[in-house]
Write the structure tokens for this entry.
Amino acid sequence: MVFLVSTTFHAHGQTSGSGTAPPEIGPLLYLAPSGRATLDNTIRELLQEQLGKNVIIRSFKAGQTGQDSGTPVVTIGSDALSQIRQENHKVPVVSLLAKPALLDSWASRSGSNVTGVYQGAPLLHQALAGKIILPHATRVAMLASPDSAVLYEDLLSHLADYGMEGRIFLASNRDDLINTLKRALQYGDFLLAAPDPDIYNPRTIKHILLTAYRRNRIVIGPTQDYVSAGSMAAVYTPLDAMAEKAADYLEMLFKGEKLPPPNYGDRFAIRVNRQVAQSLNIPVPANHKIIEDLRKLTGHSGELRHD
């Protein structure tokens, strides 16, 4: 729970005619929605719970930043983030559920005006989840385009610390994707998928998952949404953990501090497709056991979520 201490003020600095002071007004923020009512309402409620009732959350309206460029805006999704940044580059933004590449791009160009919480989990967490599910796995295959290979570079330098090695297989174009995938599956004990729309998108994911399944290989990642489509598992940041991190960032803004770069939440969950596990005869530990092992390996806390 995050508690904020801020200077409050009275409207017009005067008491009412009856001598009773008007209600105190706390910090204000705007919420730029995704357009998905259930998701937007859930995030609003989670933020209000974290920030406390004295913090005022108002819905953002187009053109608003032209009159108010100082009040922070929490954006939900990539479209909302792009809308706010195109409308006014000065307004401070805390982004949720945006595509990582888009969030990183805006943050790098905007200094301390833009930060956010990534939806997924570090690739090392995903790789270690694969190792926990397949204890004898030692080789991790990664599929990338020439432009997205950089996503895996940091991971490659850490796999050896956990008894694993990895290799990136480059698909230079869409026509080459499946042939490159087949080579990757021959090498790796499992395929690790980053949130890379060049490779993993609605047009390609069915073909990737079917090809892996036919070769008795599992796919870990890229997000929990892909688990329903046939990925074995994905580690992710649950919404309440995202709200906690966002509340921390907002508290910094209310105190006049600079925003840090985008980051992951402090708690992670995992979703597992047990139908895929059963069809491949893979005994997968319970969710809480996977998270417990991840905590031990990485030092991060975790949280159980149902399949």
Observations:
- The domain at 123-236+267-302 is CATH 3.40.50.2300 (Rossmann fold).
